[in-house]
Structure formats: structure tokens, C-alpha cells
């Protein structure tokens, strides 16, 4: 097809602003699917995505649209996730497009992730079409939100389209704007092949399926290709596009978005962001790719039954083939046995990985308290990166500890400023700026909406911070964050001992002044959830050899004197001494099994 008739674009928005619903309407109006084939969230193929109503993986689809000028256009649409944990997916998608549809909810207005996505799209010089969605709802406030868009982004009222993705109102006009406002791709089909891999997944029969944006040249079945970054050669088993299901085609030419089946057996051999060219007479310069995703959060994942470890290893290997941002390495715990230390992009990513492992592979898992990576300088000058509290060096060997900090952007109605400032103070936040998004307060009882910026340790955000943010703002506040580097910190390792045995899964890295309070809460919670034994079980929180908090689980009592009716006191004393000796022996050899619920409860603690 003539490149002037191709449009590559994506849909970006804050979570739950209607991206997937808009994609459904575009599929329907362009005839990609008949009405009887449609379902809600058509492009969200994963069961978990449909159940939670969120997009986890970016999805591509080819649409054919006959515009008002009588010409037939090819629209390559990529639907992106909206949650901050999956912004890596969005950044990869933007490189493959020339334009973006920015969806803003007419009932909620601009949110934190809306701003983040717009700035990301501007960095890639994309043409942005702002769209105000959900205008059919009774609670919609289009006038107020249009004023907000004008103040924040500078788009005038005539440049913003008013639509309802659910009813289809305004969507035909949006299709015309896509054709008119988004530029066609720039590339040359006669030049040596250059294509950018923006995603990949694994297929048991065809090997790695690479999702490509072809910039120059052509790809056809049987071609020999070279991955310029990896140096890997491969033969194309199949080439095709998404319509919306995979559809084999004769070739992919410059400007097209589609897939190739490579036959490779590992996604690691076909890295996202690599440039594909011809093995013979290929291009000399690769395209600008992506940075490798850096894990932000680390957590241990263990099987509940130790004999399931091999199944867990196989499951994580298969899952990592479809999730390039998941990293893992094997580790061992004295209490939990063998498992894996996983690096993830955020808490939602951790939750999704855990649930997919349990659902898709039928595993029962224990997940340890999430943490971050620390850069530690030792007394001998050696610098080490520690992701597991269990590997923390002895305090006497540490000269300096550095931890990752983040810049947080929160958008909230002004009436909640006080309670949110108090929340940030509790979680070690440092105030930066406050910016009012509306010039005057004409609408709504909640007052003006403001954008607050803070800096805080990433460690502080990993427990109940997000829940507290939503609770204190009655659900109106939205959050975005980015890592800004490492800073020196005063931290200690807080261990939890159950019956004098350290359970490294409960270990935390905390500020010294908070160690007692955190330790007290943890031991009290464990006393509630660990079952009583036939002997007394002490639960202690300790920093090195110093115990900072303790709680005891009382022993189960058996009345050994029940069979004694009167008689000599020496008989009763003998029975009680025998019971005491038995409990003492049991305490030395007894093993306390920590239930799975205890790990989940500790994860939820602030």
C-alpha cells in the first residue's frame, strides 16, 4: 500500500478513562469485527485483563477505513496500558507510532498518568489528538474539563473532540481526524530492511513471535534476517498483521506494523528494542531502540509445598517469555525452602505476576514483603547492590547505604491538600511544588484541582501508601512517579525471629527511629495469625543482637492432673515435672510452620 495512506497511532490515557472501549468502537466502525463478534474489551485477550478491567499488555490491530475523500486508509492502532507500573509498555509503543489519541475522562478530568503520557508523547514528537470521553454520563462536566485542558496543555475548545466510546457518539469524526491530522510514516521500501521490535511473545510451535514496526525495506516469508544488537540470524517462518487476530500476509513493507514468527526458542535471543535487518546486504545503522526495563521492586516467590519448586521454575521461565520486564534468579530460604527473587516494575506488576502464576499454572505460592535495591559501600571499598534483605552485610562492614528516590506527582481536589501533605510527611516525603490546574473555582463542591510534587524514598511507597492516598482523598487523587536516582540513607536491617529462628522473608530495611514501631506491629500481627503450638513460641523483632519488640504465643495446655483424684501431692508434682520437661525438649526440636496468610498480612502492613 502507498505509504501516504498509512496511519500509525496509539491510544494513551490514565487508567480507566476508556482506552479499550474506544478501541472496541474503532474496530466496529471500520468493520474489523462484525457486531455479533464484538465483546467488551475485545483487544484485552488475557482473562485477568478482562476481569480487572485494565490493560496489561499493549495490543496492535490493523484497520481499514474509507475516508470522506473516497480513499481507503490503513490504520495501525496500538492500545496501551494506563497504569504507571506499565508505562514501559507505553514508551515502547510511542516509538512505533506517528500519532497518539489522548483520552481524558469527562467526569474525572486530567489525572497524573495523563500528564506523564502526554509529556512522553511530546518527547517522541507525536501528533496528539485530545479526546474528551464519557460525555454521555450524567456526572460529566465537559465545560470544566475543557477549561482545564486549555490551561494545562493549551488545546483550544475546537481542537478537543467530544465523544462517548460506549455509545459511539463522535467516534466517526475521530476517524476522520486521525486521517487528516496524523502524518503518514516516513520510510523507503527500496532501502535495506530496518524494523524495530516493540514487543514479543512466545509460541510453542512458531517460537518467538516478534511484533515489528517496519521503517525501511520489506519482509517476506523465508527471508533471512539479522538482529543487529544480538547478532542473531533467523529465518522468517511466517509474516502477518493483526486483524485483530494474527493474519498471515505476503509481506510487511515500510510503514507497516505486524509480526514475524522467528522460530527462536528464547525471547532473550530476540530482545525488545533491537533492529531487524536482512542477513545479506542489510542496513549498517540500527534504529534508536529502548532502554532495558529496570526493576523497581523485588520480592521472593516460593511454592507453598517444597516439592512444587520445579513446577514453579518452569512456570516462571514460561511467563518471562511473554513478559520482557520480569527478571528472576533462584534463592533459598531456611524457612520457605527454594524459590526465586523476582525483579518487577511495581506493586501491580507483582500482583499480576503472582496471580498469573497461580491461575495459569495451578500453583500455590508465598510472596515475601516487596523491597527495593540498595547500593552499599563496604569498609574495604567494595560496592555491592543488594536486593534481598537477607544478603545485607553486617553493620560493622558498611560505610554508606544508598537507596532509590522517586519524584511523585499527585493530582487532587484542593480540599484534600492538608490531609495529603500530612500523609507525605509520615512517609518521608520532601515537598517540591504545588500547581493549580484551574484558574478559577467555578465548578464543583470539591474546589480547584491541584498538582502536588514530592520526592520520597521508593521504599516508603511499597506498603500501604497508595491505599492511604486513596483513602484520605476519598478516591479523587491520582498518582504518577518516576525514579530520580540514589541518595544516601540511614537504614538498619530488622529481622523477625519465630521460636529463635530468623524468617528472612519477614526481614525489612527500615530507618532506625521507626524500627521499634514497625517491629511491634509485625510481632503482634504474627502472634494473631500463627497457630498455637504445644510449647510457648516467642516472636521477636531484632536489629542485629538487640531485640526491639517481642510477643509470645502461649502454649496449648493439657490438664495432666485430670486423672488424679486426691492422693499424694508428689504424684501430681511428678506429672507436672514430666510435662515441663517434655515441653522444654519439644521447644528445642519443635518446628513452627508459618502459614501463608501470615506473609500476606505482613505485606499489607504499613
What fraction, in percent, of the residue positions are helical? 25-40%
What is the tally of beta strands?
A: 31
- The CATH H-level superfamily of the largest domain is P-loop containing nucleotide triphosphate hydrolases
In CATH's first tier, which class of the largest domain applies? Alpha Beta
Question: How many domain regions?
Answer: 5
3D architecture notes:
The longest helix is centred in the last third of the chain and has 21 residues, at 569-589. 25% of the residues lie in helices and 32% in strands. The protein has an eight-stranded antiparallel β-sheet with strand order 11-10-16-7-8-15-12-13. The chain is an alpha+beta fold. Mean pLDDT is 80; it is low at 441-446. The protein folds into five domains: 3-181, P-loop containing nucleotide triphosphate hydrolases (Rossmann fold), CATH 3.40.50.300; 194-278, Translation factors (Elongation Factor Tu (Ef-tu), domain 3, Beta Barrel), CATH 2.40.30.10; 297-367, Elongation Factor G (Translational Gtpase), domain 3 (Alpha-Beta Plaits, 2-Layer Sandwich); 398-489, Alpha-Beta Plaits, CATH 3.30.70.240; 495-500 and 523-542 and 550-604, no CATH class. The chain is globular, with a radius of gyration of 29 Å. The chain is built from 13 helices and 31 strands.
